[in-house]
Amino acid sequence: MQECMDAIAFEQNPASTTAALRITAESLGGEEFKADYGVRYAYLTGAMYKGIASTKSVVAMAQAGLMGYFGAGGLRLEALESAIRTIQAQLRDGQSYGMNMLCNLEQPEVEERTVDLYLKCGVSRIEAAAYMKITPSLVRYRLKGITPGANGATHVPHKVLAKVSRPEVATAFLQPAPPEIVSKIVARGGLTPAEADLARLIPMADDICVEADSGGHTDAGVALALMPAMMRLRDDMMARHGYAKTVRVGAAGGIGTPQTAAAAFVLGADFILTGSINQCTVEAGISDAVKDLLQEMNVQDTAYAPAGDMFELGARIQVLKRGLFFPARANKLYELYQRHNSLDEIEPSVRKQIQEKFFRRSFEDVWTETEDYLRRTDPKKLAEIESNPKRKMAAIFKWYFIHSTRLAMEGNADQKVDYQVHCGPALGAFNQWVKGTATENWRNRRVATLAEMIMRGAAAWLNQRVDSFVQSELRRQTLPLASR
Length: 484
Ligand SMILES: Cc1cc2nc3c(=O)[nH]c(=O)nc-3n(C[C@H](O)[C@H](O)[C@H](O)COP(=O)(O)O)c2cc1C
Hints:
Structural class: alpha/beta
Bound molecules: flavin mononucleotide
Helix content: 40-55%
CATH superfamily of the largest domain: Aldolase class I
CATH class of the largest domain: Alpha Beta
Radius of gyration: 24 Å
Number of helices: 20
Strand order of the largest sheet: 1-2-3-4-7-8-10-11
Shape: globular
Number of strands: 13
Distance between the termini: 40 Å
CATH topology of the largest domain: TIM Barrel
Oligomer: single chain
CATH architecture of the largest domain: Alpha-Beta Barrel
């Protein structure tokens, strides 16, 4: 914090060469972005599943004139509706909030019901993530209520921010909704022909958030390479489709300090979005035990592990490693799944180790729990899994991912080593920045204060860098040629 305050003091230093043209936290990022979202800063907090990005966090951001997305992933519809109502009840007109929307190709009805709920509750901003292609539910959300505006423009009531890490996914969001999907939705009464007619005038997303290596699900992208390529793609697609409004490009992944935020804006980001740092704040919906661990981490304390929800596909998540066995154990389970076709093929000593040490219960007990759940929720899937030993092994292994999340959420004191805590190195960098200040203790970290520190610090850092470049150029110009 002291460093931040020193940096902010610099920002306010009238002696600075660039004082007259001082960059401020408010001036960073896209003007249209800030106006559209009704926010003071081009800074968003990303969703974190199961309400880790909590109603408290979303409300705190909104009340500070900023915006965050609620972590809708993994919550039942009733819990989601209650969260929306809780947020709405605490916000005044003009204060902004958004909800997460996750692609679910395996259970498209989950996405459909989520869209029904968002439309019913008047949710007007979503952060769409995990999409590999555009789905009918997303198209319905995007186009519902669209009306013609003046001079060929349109009025679009539902804003979509698409979080992407690959150009082909960005391309899908930079195009209008696929016509064949639009026609099908019209045929079943989900959109009116008038709404469908306007579909070709707008892209699927207002904003593309380019996610480099991040906490949670990650393609481990490199921001320095991704940003220019994605901005070029945006420009090409704008030229091809001639949209009335420019699609903005923002940056996420690895942002936890003023310097990183400043770098993202220098790369051309219209906005930035943070994740990992917000999990270690008072408002985050996770146990104190996890926050205590997170507060101590450094930049090298993360590891990659398989993602429980996309286990068979080999998708990866970035998690906290320091003091935890979860990453090693989860990787071991994935390696066994790849090498074997059934639990019976696994060496007896390894089977014993998993049941006694990892699971602390037998495979039979885990299967009974899994079977019970599937019988209630998805009997068809249960029948498929039962008849396929490899799928049954995957189902039993996947239980560990649900279990380890639960342990972390509850802060189970006995099984700390099995906590599954999604997190990226951004928090490690933040922790180093605030070391020795009051903010070192997470109990003094508030989500909107972090936004303030990072944005004001970024402006200060940029002013300092520009000033240093200018001073050095002035020195160079005043030096006699011979001495150069
Ligand atoms: C604990 C945790 C849970 C997350 N859950 C979700 C999620 O449910 N949906 C989503 O779109 N992104 C999720 N994310 C990603 C964040 O919204 C954000 O994009 C990412 O954390 C930014 O990178 P950073 O962690 O390097 O700041 C999660 C991130 C973390 C750390």
